[in-house]
Amino acid sequence: MMQQEIKNDLILRTLRGEAVERTPVWMMRQAGRYLPEYIRLRERYSFFERCQNPELACEITLQPVDIVGVDAAILFSDILVVPQAMGMEVQLVEKLGPFLPQPVKAEEDLQRISVPDVNDKLSYVFEAIRLIKKELNGRVPLIGFAGAPWTLLCYMVQGKGSKTFDEAKAFCYQQPATAHALLQMITDTTIAYLKGQVAAGADVLQLFDSWGGLLGKNDFEVFSLRYIRQIVEALKTEVPVIVFAKGAWGSLAEMAQTGAAGLGIDWCIEPQTARNIAGKYVTLQGNFDPAKLLGPVPQIEKETKEMLRAFGKDRHIANLGHGILPNVPVDHARAFVDTVKAYRFSNS
Ligand code: CP3
Q1: CA–CA dist 328, 34 (Å, integer)
Q2: Hey, CA dihedral for 300, 58, 76, 126, is it positive or negative?
Q3: Which of 74, 169, 289, 318 could hold 25 in an S-S bridge, CB 3.0 to 4.6 Å?
């Protein structure tokens, strides 16, 4: 594929540690339900139809770039397309969220799943990426993504969302050998999948470990970080990789050692504390409390500037500390983005 020049490459430069004229900004889950343009498509197509149709995925990916003016596009898809490609049935049930009717509970259940040929099972994602790159025409970089193995195991074992993922954790503690076999299958699939995303044109990759914070530090190392390390190692020479392990900031120092170019942090850790722990050579991404976008606009503007100052110039990508909430007014999201884009650090 012909290399395309990217006009707004702020995010790529800040991930390489280069000085930037201003802090770049995007929002996790920016392509989604707070946008009326997305809701309209939702009435006509099921969730996985929207993911599997490259034209629809492309249209939804571009919406926040056009409507909110973010500095990166993130592929519209879901982390659960990987368990699906591995052979599990995944449904998205209204109000309940993800539902996997036949979760993994024991060693014999691994026979029902496999490490698939991603070019067969996930080619629709690669096709969407090629189309998005064409339509973006170099305006901003495209972020590809996958769920981290631990977070995918949570859904594959629990079978649905949960506050504690207690069944998934029990599975790891009662049947560690089976858990590790599953984590390795997910890891192998994810590496092939992310390599395919890069070959199709993804400029940056993000790993979402949304449930990393459910594990204590030792268990996070054993059941999550070991696999994240394999993925980062396999991809880091191709594109910058951002690791976002929500709530797992007790392992920030270890995550900074994985070779990730960026680390996502949530709002429960202070930017300066995160910087002290992570060291100088990694870009930090975050960490505005998504619920704060429900507050009044002047407050959003004030606190966004405070966040920018707390991170300082360079090596920061402004973002939320988790996904944008569906009830956020579009102009509040825009106020966050516009405040970042207008802010300039003085030279002192
Ligand atoms: O960030 C983006 O804009 C790209 C699209 C994206 C989606 N899901 C679309 C989506 C991304 C990056 C994800 C990641 C994802 N999916 C995560 C990790 C990030 C996080 O928020 O923690 C997780 C845990 C999932 C699993 C998942 N998918 C859940 C729990 C749900 C239901 C609840 C919810 O948040 O909506 C989904 C469905 C989903 N994925 C929707 C969207 C836009 C909403 C479904 C709909 O519109 O009908």
Answers
A1: 6
A2: negative
A3: 318
> Which one of 38, 51, 63, 78 would you pick to mutate in the ligand 1 pocket, going by the greatest count of ligand atoms within 8 A of its CB?
78
Tens digit of pLDDT for each residue in 162-216?
A: 999 999 999 999 999 999 999 999 999 999 999 999 999 999 999 999 999 999 9
The verdict on domain 10-342 having CATH code 3.20.20.210 is yes
CA dist., res. 172 & res. 263, Å (int):
26
The answer to whether the CB of 59 is under 6 A from ligand 1 is no
226 labelled catalytic: no
42 Cβ closer than 6 Å to some ligand 1 atom: yes
**331 a catalytic residue:** no
pTM: predicted TM-score of the whole model, two decimal places: 0.97
Residue 347 has pLDDT above 70, yes or no: no
Q: How far apart are CA 193 and CA 186, in angstroms?
A: 10
Mean pLDDT for the chain overall: 96
Hey, what are 132's tokens? 């998005």
Q: How far apart are CA 97 and CA 277, in angstroms?
A: 35
Q: For residue 348, what pLDDT band results from cuts at 50, 70 and 90?
A: very low
Query: 130 an active-site residue?
Result: no
Nearest-angstrom CA–CA distance, 241 and 191? 12
d(CA 202, CA 306): 32
CB neighbour burial string for 72-87, b if at least 16 within 10 angstroms, e if fewer: bbbbbbbbbbbbbbbe
- The ranges assigned to domains in the chain are 10-342
Does 3 score more than 80 pLDDT?
A: no
- Mean pLDDT throughout 311-316? 96
Among 9, 38, 71, 78, which one carries the catalytic annotation?
A: 78
C-alpha–C-alpha distance, residues 245 and 224, integer Å: 9
Q: What digits encode the pLDDT tens for the residues 217-252?
A: 999 999 999 999 999 999 999 999 999 999 999 999
CA of 198 to the centre of ligand 1 (A): 21
The residue type of 301 is: E
